[in-house]
Amino acid sequence: MSKKNLLVVCSHPDDEVLGCGATLSKFNKIYNIHCLYLTNGGTNRPNSAIKKNIKSIKRVKKIIGINQTYNGGLPDNEIDKVSLLSVVKIIENIVKKVKPELIFTHTNKDLNIDHQICNKALITACRPTNTNNFLKKIFFFEILSSTEWNFKSDKFSPEIFVKISNLHLKAKIKAMKQYSAELKKFPHPRSLSNIENLAKIRGSHVGFHYAEAFELGYEKIH
After folding, report:
1. pLDDT band for position 53 (50/70/90)?
2. Is 69 in contact with 53 (CB distance < 8 Å)?
């Protein structure tokens, strides 16, 4: 049986790892995995940092099993300066090309404005019409140091828990090490220790050792 396609739509390189890296490591056996980064994560950084990010993406692809990546070319942490329609069209074009059965993207509960717009644009681009009947499910992921820091918003409330093994968690941590500039020291949320801690917490919610958790955007049952 040929593999179906899975698409991750995220704002920055490292979001794919923080949000669903272990799940991708697990799912690469059953899906062809594609990833759209709306920005290169370095618009407001030196060119050397942007080049480093590109090299990091290549290493991450091999570690967690991403088959193909795309870049939307939008300004890092300034997607709000671009029309929503422009963002929607970027996502629509990739969705039409990939024809994913499953999409992962940001929750709208995040503090980061790029994450919020990514969620809104994705939902708009993926309205459940006859033209995208290939798409069955959309899952929203959380991002350490963004989701939990939006203190005044509605809170991230997952309904989907994907059981991950120690091997999948190690792949996520190894992949995140490639984005070393984004990592912080414990007790910062975006530390290697807290990546593991979150996996333990989400797992404990449903009787697993480790899990990644997601909100359900929508699911179409044919």
Report:
1. confident
2. no
